[in-house]
Amino acid sequence: MALYRKYRPASFAEVVGQEHVTEPLSTALDAGRITHAYLFSGPRGCGKTSSARILARSLNCVQGPTSNPCGVCASCVALGPGGAGNLDVIELDAASHGGVEDTRELRDRAFYAPAESRYRVFIVDEAHMVTTAGFNALLKIVEEPPEHLIFVFATTEPEKVLPTIRSRTHHYPFRLLAPSTMRGLLERICAQEQVPVEDAVYPLVIRAGGGSPRDSLSLLDQLLAGAGDEGVTYARALALLGVTDVALIDEAVDALAANDGASLFGTIDKVMDAGHDPRRFAVDLLERLRDLILMRAVPDAAERGLVDAPGDVLERMREEAEKIGSATLARYAELAHAGLGEMRGATAPRLLLEVMCARMLLPSATDAESAVLQRLERIERGIAAPPPPSAPTAPPAAPRPGAVEPPSTGLVYQRPSQRRTADVDAPAREATRATPEPEPTSTPAPAPPPVPQPEPVRQSDPEPAQMQQVSSDRPDAAAIRAVWSEVRAKVRERSRTVEVMLSGATVQTVDGSRLVLGHDSAPLAKRLVEPRNGDVIRAALHDVFGGDWEVTCEHGAAADAATPASDAPVSAAQLQAKAPAAPRFSRPSQARAVPPPSGPPAPDPDDIPPEAPDYPDDPGPPPPSAVDDGYAASPPPTTPEDEEEMMAEAAVPVEETSRVDPDDAAGELLTEVLGARQIDG
């Protein structure tokens, strides 16, 4: 006989792990508070049908209703484990008898009085399989049954039971057994069977059974059936249950902790050579990662029963938990879970398993927050990791006030941003150098009136050293951006982790002693303002600028925060170059809106240059005066307003008398302008 049938409980006191159900039922039976319908729900193999039989046995016992049947009366013997059954206790399988005709037959039989017992009990197993029409046929009798009739519905999906039926029952939810409770049950049964079992076998059976007593006892029955004189060994259990060897799991975890790709892929090759299913290996690896996460979060997880494993395995797991950080374990678990989803129905599961392991070895391959946290954790723990993609480095620090610049020793590299800043001052300096001094002449020649030029912006005189010292105590945002690399260098001396987090931060604003940073990652922005990290940044600012600082970090950086504004003076030539050019053509509608140009128009390149004077004292012809005819250049592109104006003009009707033939107009033009004469014939 199968173990789950041989050791089926005969009373509520023998039911294991369901005290939340058996205790209220026992109390109700002893007090005589019996209802006409019960609903037992829960996962498969957790004792629903066995409890329904115990309830029927307790109701029909000679000494009952009682929670402790005598076990010697005819009803108790017939309804006990291995009994022949009773005519008044009918068990139906709704999976094969769930139609409306079956329920109508059950309804007709239910009205008959019991033959030899106190109650007629109908146990409907898999009640969720009854059709809606079948439930409707039972509704009336379930709502108002005879006094001798009791229904017990057992189901794994109570939400599929018709609500009108479910609302008329007492619902008792069953649940799976805890690992510690299941282990005690298995050990008692093995002791009664007198078969030795190694301690490492019980966790394998419990995990394979999934908390179901019936499934776990079925697996244990299989192991006991194949046990030899030495009993049930760990190797035999691994082979029969198809579980991955713990040694292979340990090798995989050690390879991940050391970031050793050769060892990890070698372990996968061993798994495939041993004939294991890649998906099963991924499941076992995920379970190990779960145990390691719990052991890092709860140091006494084994004592609390959160992790169930033999003593030697627990010791290895503690060592593994010390090697790998919590963020890394969480990322590994996420990748293993995603890999299991990809392996479902795949034709090449080994390939997907190797891809999953490759992702674990390359945390910098993605920009996810978990990958960033894992890289930070590796830096804190001092573990070498693959280099992340190269990022643009911060601009070099600007010289502090009063610092002496070293002499130039050749070509100096400049960044594009520095070149743009330097190019602003270059035209003014070049214009100053290129202006030659006037050569003295005996008779100065008259020159055209000079064109007024905007006066160049003069730089303010440098402040005294004392004023610079006062202003340097509280620098502005531009000053901090200029020496930001120096601040990061000071931070690196205290904490490399904080310096890495500052690589994506930019200076936003400065309000007195309050520095506001911006970061494009919300989690890293929160970590930067933690007390430990904030103290490092404040100490670095104190070393560079002095004084006490308050540092805050916000999510999101302004587009112009990373590039400080240039305070270089703007020369007159630059102002003239940046000024918008005067339009070369304008329509009447545009001429009303656009003001006339302030200066004389630029000479046309097609104009004939003036003649040079033959003698030094000959001033030569005066320069031609510009004639503003309104058509100095090519017309601008047509705007929608111009098109509307032209369409309105074209829509005005023209009188017949004012129409001119194009040929006649051309002839008149040739005659008047060129003196042409029309030739007849």
TrEMBL record:
CDD domains: AAA
Residues annotated as domain AAA+ ATPase: 34-177
UniProt-recorded Gene Ontology molecular function terms: ATP binding; DNA binding; DNA-directed DNA polymerase activity; metal ion binding
InterPro entries: AAA+_ATPase, DNA_pol3_clamp-load_cplx_C, DNA_pol_III_gamma-3, DNA_pol_III_sug/sutau_N, DNA_Rep/Repair_Clamp_Loader, HLD_clamp_pol_III_gamma_tau, P-loop_NTPase
Region of interest: Disordered: 383-477, 564-648
Basic and acidic residues bias: start-end ranges: 420-432
Catalysed transformations (reactions): DNA(n) + a 2'-deoxyribonucleoside 5'-triphosphate = DNA(n+1) + diphosphate
Low complexity compositional bias, start-end: 564-583
Composition bias type Acidic residues, residue spans: 604-617
SUPFAM superfamilies linked to this entry: P-loop containing nucleoside triphosphate hydrolases, post-AAA+ oligomerization domain-like
Biased composition (Pro residues): 385-399, 437-455, 594-603
Organism field: Rhodococcus xishaensis
GO terms (BP aspect): DNA-templated DNA replication
Enzyme Commission numbers on file: 2.7.7.7
Record keywords: ATP-binding, DNA replication, DNA-directed DNA polymerase, Metal-binding, Nucleotide-binding, Nucleotidyltransferase, Transferase, Zinc
Pfam annotation, one family: DNAX_ATPase_lid
Enzyme class: transferase
Protein name: DNA polymerase III subunit gamma/tau
Similarity remark: Belongs to the DnaX/STICHEL family.
Subunit relationships: DNA polymerase III contains a core (composed of alpha, epsilon and theta chains) that associates with a tau subunit. This core dimerizes to form the POLIII' complex. PolIII' associates with the gamma complex (composed of gamma, delta, delta', psi and chi chains) and with the beta chain to form the complete DNA polymerase III complex.
Highest rank taxon of the organism: Bacteria
Cellular component terms per the entry's GO annotation: DNA polymerase III complex
